[in-house]
């Protein structure tokens, strides 16, 4: 993750024509320190310094806490995953908090489902905010974990529906399978045929 952040810093810095010297002055470091850090030589780089560097090129860093290989899930995410589990065929093997096959990499899928022919990484989001950042994170996990498909799960809220409508087709280019089509395939125990953002139907109220 640090390598990805530094690579994005360098690309943004070069694109904006910002010199390492300007960054150094802004964060109170030397030119040599910025160069050393940017090229990945600074193994003790602090989160504070990293975020300060990113701010110089109009990027924001985010810190996520991981308990032993998987990201913390709140109650909302747990409900989303429980609902999803109830909607797919029981033939899908279900594993939670599946980490990357890379030593020291603390990223994890919320769930991985698999059958004999297809492995799917699943992440649950209770509220869509930065779709671009979410897409980048999910695509990197798909690449590094080697799963065949990636699915983003979101509940059917007005905020999420508005976010997806306003995002436009380009923002969802990596998720070509429509939500109902993907969910129907998974319910039937079939490969959905591609990545998808699945908007889960609103749970039906229980009858007393």
Instruction: Label the structural class.
Output: alpha/beta
Give, in spatial order, the strands making up the sheet with the most strands. Answer: 1-2-3-4-5
Tell me the overall shape: elongated
The major sheet is characterized as: 5 strands, mixed
Strand content of the residues, in percent?
15-25%
* Spatial separation of the terminal alpha carbons: 49 Å
**Average of per-residue pLDDT values:** 87
Quick one: how many beta strands?
A: 5
Supply Rg. 20 Å
Element-by-element helix/strand order: HHHHHEEEHEHHE
Question: Please, could you describe this protein's structure?
Answer:
The chain has 208 residues and is of the alpha/beta class. The protein is 44% helix and 15% strand. The protein is built from 8 helices and 5 strands. The protein has a 5-stranded mixed β-sheet, sandwiched between helices. A hairpin with a 4-residue loop joins strand 2 and strand 3. Helix 1 runs parallel beside helix 4 and helix 2 packs across helix 3. The longest helix has 15 residues. It is elongated, with a radius of gyration of 20 Å.
Summarize the structure.
With 208 residues, the chain is an alpha/beta fold.
Task: Explain the layout of strands and helices.
Layout lengths: L1 H15 L3 H8 L3 H8 L8 H10 L18 H13 L5 E7 L8 E7 L4 E6 L6 H15 L3 E7 L2 H14 L7 H9 L8 E5 L8
Parallel strand pairs: 3-4, 4-5
Antiparallel strand pairs: 1-2, 2-3
Which descriptors apply to this entry?
208 residues, alpha/beta, five-stranded mixed sheet, 8 helices, 5 strands, 44% helix
């Amino acid at each position: 993750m640090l390598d990805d952040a530094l690579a994005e810093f360098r690309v943004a810095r070069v694109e904006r024509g910002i010199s390492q010297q300007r960054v150094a002055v802004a964060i109170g470091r030397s030119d040599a320190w910025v160069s050393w850090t940017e090229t990945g030589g600074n193994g003790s780089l602090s989160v504070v310094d990293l975020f300060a560097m990113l701010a110089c090129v109009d990027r924001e860093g985010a810190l996520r806490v991981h308990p032993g290989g998987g990201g913390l899930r709140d109650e909302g995410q747990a409900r989303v995953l429980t609902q999803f589990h109830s909607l797919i065929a029981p033939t899908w093997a279900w594993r939670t908090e599946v980490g990357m096959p890379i030593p020291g990499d603390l990223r994890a899928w919320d769930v991985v489902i698999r059958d004999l022919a297809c492995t799917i990484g699943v992440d649950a989001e209770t509220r869509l905010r930065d779709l671009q950042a979410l897409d980048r994170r999910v695509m990197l996990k798909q690449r590094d974990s080697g799963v065949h498909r990636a699915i983003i799960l979101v509940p059917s809220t007005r905020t999420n529906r508005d976010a997806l409508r306003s995002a436009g087709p380009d923002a969802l280019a990596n998720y070509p399978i429509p939500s109902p089509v993907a969910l129907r395939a998974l319910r039937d125990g079939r490969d959905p045929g591609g990545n998808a953002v699945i908007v889960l139907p609103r749970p039906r109220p229980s009858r007393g």
